[in-house]
Specification:
Two copies of one chain form a homodimer. The longest helix of chain A has 17 residues. Helices cover 41% and strands 17% of the residues of chain A. Chain A has two domains: 51 residues, no CATH class; 180 residues, Nucleotidyltransferase, domain 5. In chain A, strand 2 and strand 3 form a beta hairpin. Chain A starts with 9 loop residues before the first helix and ends with a helix. Chain A is globular, with a radius of gyration of 20 Å. With 265 residues, chain A is an alpha/beta fold. Chain A has eleven helices and eight strands. In chain A, helix 5 crosses helix 6 and helix 7 packs parallel to helix 9. At the A-B interface, helix 3 and helix 6 of A face helix 3 and helix 6 of B.
Chain lengths: 265, 265
């Protein structure tokens, strides 16, 4: 495995988000100069701060209201990074529930198979004047900064983007990240949690064009806001929220699919 | 240690430059998809090719004449990456003994101590309209590509640049590299091998302004050409040259410093 993780064991990573990690332990695990390493990690989207002699993710001290979240969606011409590429990316930056900035771009691609065009509506012809992957990844990296990366089923988007960055010579991402699907499972009762399904049930984004990047980002944004209204009150900081998203109990699923019921009636 | 090496053991790295590495061994050492990994490494300046079922550095099959070398020099405001930065960089691309392209830039720096200004002649004021480190590293990365990185005492420049790239969010360098000082020790008889000394003895670059990046690059270029004229004839490919530079016997040093003798006479 190349470059994908910061070189700390799981226990230390846990400590950075909770009880703090001592200088001694941090220094034991790295052989680079510490200051330099913290700079590198920051350049990869991860800010680590020192408080009373211990190190923490900066997000441990940032409230959910003050944090900068970056909600992201990509369309790709297939799911395998070694064969496929991003063909569209969109993102909004969210602070205190408001969209404060946005970024979107198609990506030049010389071949998109008909199945993908059917899902996304994007043809290779549509991308012929779009910037190439390198240009888009460099621009998106500047946009993302060290914001908390959010996507619906975040693993796919995060990994695909991080690996795409590496493909063009950038370092992999280390941004803290949060899955809007996992958060929804713990804050919103639903029979299913696919974005299109949640959109239909909760009318999140009435003008949605599902499987276009910015449309899905805006749906996810509405979903994220809805999730936040139903949060456990013990969740104060970003790290509380990440922990809640992973560890809180999932809500009970209704016995029947309300959408299916309607269509059967 | 983060990101600085490709994840292969020393034996495998040796094999990539000599007898080739089998798919099986390469796959055993990595858990990523191989095609993707080769793409990543290429994005970091290292091209690996497959021949008859084994993997090799592409430079094993490229003759010294056909290879693209990038001769590089940096000036910094100190030697420690965690405190200091590049303040000037220059490079020329050399193919078959000819300069085919060049790149140089000052780098914006808000403080340069008087000692450094004395050595380089560069003041913070001189850099006030220069692009910042991020801009320069992105541009230099595009210039460098997968050329063989050459510098006089290559370790310092290579490591400082690779770490500077990481500071601004780029992946570390994996380019093959070659030390013009080590090569000179094996091809040119001299009492000392400092660039300014060699310049004086061999009149490499008569108009040299030592400790300005492009001037030192041009001196190194002349030195490199002189070294190549004295090569062992068994050296044909780039990998032969790298091996020769590291492993051939150093030439015997004259008993007296001719420069010192002159000044004493």
């Amino acid at each position: 495995m190349i470059n994908n993780d910061i070189c700390l064991d799981a226990k230390s990573i846990h400590k950075l988000s909770s009880g703090g990690l001592s200088s001694k332990t941090l220094k034991e695990q790295i052989d680079d100069d510490l200051e330099f390493l913290l700079q590198l990690w920051h350049s990869q989207g991860l800010q680590i701060t020192k408080q009373h002699g211990s190190f923490y993710f900066a997000t441990k001290f940032i409230s959910v209201e003050d944090a900068e979240f970056c909600i992201v969606d990509i369309e790709t011409n297939g799911s395998k990074i070694e064969k496929h590429q991003i063909i569209e990316i969109a993102a909004v930056k969210v602070k205190n529930g408001e969209i404060v900035d946005s970024y979107e771009s198609l990506v030049y691609c010389n071949e998109i198979n008909p199945h993908i065009t059917e899902i996304t509506g994007i043809t290779a012809e549509d991308t012929k004047d779009a910037p190439n992957l390198k240009r888009v990844m460099y621009d998106f990296k500047v946009f993302l900064g060290d914001a908390v990366f959010i996507a619906h089923d975040v693993k796919f988007d995060y990994k695909f983007i991080s690996q795409s960055m590496q493909k063009v010579g950038l370092a992999p991402l280390l941004n803290r990240n949060l899955c809007s699907l996992s958060l929804a499972e713990r804050t919103i009762e639903s029979y299913r949690y696919a974005l299109s399904y949640l959109n239909e049930i909760f009318s999140l984004n009435p003008s949605a064009t599902h499987h276009r990047a910015m449309s899905d980002v805006l749906t996810t944004y509405e979903l994220f806001k809805l999730s936040l209204t139903n949060l456990d009150e013990t969740v104060e900081t970003v790290e509380d929220l990440i922990k809640f998203t992973k560890e809180a109990k999932r809500l009970k699923r209704p016995k029947f699919d309300p959408l299916l019921k309607e269509s059967q009636e």
